[in-house]
Amino acid sequence: MSGDRADAFLRMIRLSRRGRLKVYLGYSAGVGKTYQMLQEGQRLKNDGIDIVIGLLETHGRADIVNLARGLETVPRMGQEYHGITLEEMDVEAVIARQPQVALIDELAHTNVPGSRNAKRYEDVQEILAAGIHVISTLNVQHLESLYNVVETSIGVRVRERLPDSVLAEADEIVDVDLATEDLRRRLEEGKVYPAERINTALTNFFKPANLEKLRELTLRELAAQIDLRRREAEEDQGAASDQVMVCLSSHGPNSNRLLRYGSRLAGKLNRNWYAVYVQTPAEEATVIDAGIQRRLSETLTLAKQLGAMVFTYKGQDIADTILQFAKEYRVGHVVVGNSRPRPLWKRIGRNKAVVETLVRNARGLSLIVLDTGEESPADRRMPPPSPEPAEAARPREDRTKGSSDHLLLSRWITGRRIRIWDEPVPKSVVLRALASTVGQESGIADGEVLLEDILKREAQGSTFFNEGVAFPHVRVKDLEIPVIALGLTRKGISDVATLKPVEVVFLILSPASDPDAQVKLLALVSRAAQNRILFRRLRAAKTPEEAMGAIRERDNRGES
Predict the structure, then answer these.
(1) pLDDT tens, residue by residue, 218-252
(2) Is 103 a member of any domain?
């Protein structure tokens, strides 16, 4: 690692009041991620930084053990599981120690059941929220969106995975690269695994073809992250008319494949993306069985984890509803699944041939049909997206554009627009209170009409399925400037059945004359809601002033 990189992170540490995350990214065990992390730790210590090892996996490697000497290690905690005591990182001890920097190995690790958090990256996010900087390591195959790509190209099902957003939100990513021949030589020399595992590893996972594919994925991921940061700095909020939409079904197989494809496509295009489930009258919650409801809920949860904004849209005609959604939300790419061919009699009538109807009527859209049949061929890799969408016409000038502060959530929310409830509260009460607040400030004379419009919009397509967050929104006639109100519910929305209580509600009003404003603000609040640190601080805020302080701090951190 160059001295310039270490110096840059050192400057970041000294300037920041919030925890920063640096990730050493590699394509396989043995490329040197942990070694470089420890090297940087020793350098930071020599520069006077208070640094500890929060968790280190040595795997019996002498070079790792030697390099860690002299660095303080926070003792691990024991966690009993099936009568066996296993060790995990002691998150409370690391936070209580309050170092400037903590070295935490293997970011995608799954903790022992019963631990404080299910995954190590969640431990890291708590430590970051406490103002402690973290340096960690990650192999590319652990990214959730790459699960199907890795499985089909390498034949490995990666069990330990983390959301792509964890890596996307890292303040610095360093690629740890090593020629595949050199990695295999290190393995043969016993520098990666014990002697009894070497031959098995060489003939299975560490085959040259597998390593080359993983190395290629890592370099592509790094390039995508660099391009994402460049575009975020140069472009508007990515609200051009080529957003990505993934269409979900309550009974369609392999919905997870669709979501991972949509996530990768949206990442390559640097565009917002939506996961949309069209609920027909035949699929009301009172009609479909509990097993289908559970599978659908798990699918929507994965969509949120992958970074999508989740909608449940009601409609009689699925294809028509999809096309209406695409038009309203500036969608340019529709991803839909198509299972095995069915006989003609099963493709006649409404909703019997959704894909065929979309192909026939999707004018101006890129329709991507993936074979999601349960017996689909194993070798199915995602083709690179066409370069044209990235060059699509930019949104016209509007009131949400023209200066960098349109990217700041604090521009659109004030303390007067924040409401807090300490007890479970019905959805209608929350929407009425927020509508009344923003209606008065925006000069909307008839608050009841505004509330009716919001409720109608919610009845048509609800966003109360986003892992604890909801984004109700409506376009308002004669409204000049967009506004956002924030509702914080300590014990959730009482009459909305979700696996995770809805505790944060962003109400968005946008001018009916400016369709792009709604898309931009939805993207803004969606990204904010995916910030685990901000989400926790909002949940803990006791007053509107504390909530605004958390929002401003998030904005300031983003600016720096």
Answers:
(1) 988 888 787 767 665 555 444 456 889 999 887 66
(2) yes
pTM (predicted TM-score): 0.66
Query: Rounded to whole angstroms, how far apart are CA atoms 352 and 343?
Result: 11
- Give me the pLDDT at residue 250, please: 74
Q: DSSP assignment of 5-32, as one string?
A: HHHHHHHHHHH-SS--EEEEEESSTTSS
Three-state DSSP class for residue 467: coil
Q: Which residues of 228-253 are buried (b: 16+ CB within 10 A; e: fewer)?
A: beeebeeebbbbbbbbbbbbbbbebe
C-beta atoms surrounding 366 within 10 Å: 17
Q: Under 8 Å CB-to-CB from 3, ≥6 apart: which residues?
A: none
Residue 350 CA to residue 317 CA, distance in Å, equals 7
Task: Please give the Cα distance from 427 to 192 (Å, whole number).
Answer: 55
Say how far apart CA 299 and CA 30 lie, in whole Å: 34
Within this chain, do residues 249 and 222 fall inside the same structural domain, yes or no?
no
pLDDT tens digits, 159-175: 999 988 899 889 899 99
Cβ–Cβ under 8 Å, residues 135 and 41: yes
Q: Using alpha carbons only, how large is the chain's radius of gyration in Å?
A: 25
Q: Report the alpha-carbon distance of residue 468 to residue 456 in Å, rounded.
A: 22
Examine the pLDDT at 399 and tell me if it is beyond 50.
no
- Buried b vs exposed e over 71-90: b needs ≥16 C-beta within 10 Å? beebeebebeeeeeebebbb
- The string of DSSP letters for 178-211 reads --HHHHHHHHHTTSSS-HHHHHHHHHTTT-HHHH
Q: What is the CATH number of the domain that holds 317?
A: 3.40.50.620
The DSSP H or E segment spanning 324 is helix 318-328
Q: For residue 547, which phi and psi values (nearest 5 degrees)?
A: -65, -45
Question: At 315, which amino acid appears?
Answer: G
Q: Which residues of 283-307 are buried (b: 16+ CB within 10 A; e: fewer)?
A: beeeebeeeeeeebeebbbbbbbbb
Angle at 449 between CA 447 and CA 455, to 5 degrees: 105
3-state secondary structure 484-551: EEEEEECCCECCCCCCCCCCEEEEEEEECCCHHHHHHHHHHHHHHHCCHHHHHHHHHCCCHHHHHHHH
The CATH number for 200's domain is 3.40.50.300
Are 217 and 173 in the same domain?
yes
Instruction: List the domain range (segments joined by +) for residue 515.
Output: 404-559
- CA 194 to each of CA 29, 109, 145, 332: distance values in angstroms, whole numbers, following the listed order: 13, 21, 31, 51
| Runs of H (alpha helix) within 368-514 | 409-412, 427-441, 447-460
273: β partners: 244
The closest alpha carbon to 112, from 160, 59, 52, belongs to 160
Kindly report the CA angle at 519 between 514 and 524, in degrees rounded to 5? 125
Angle (CA) 338-361-510 rounded to 5° is: 100
Instruction: State the CB neighbour count (10 A cutoff) for residue 177.
Output: 15
399 within a domain of the structure (yes/no): no
Based on the domain organization, do 197 and 242 belong to the same domain? no
Among 170, 76, 79, which Cα is nearest to 118's? 79
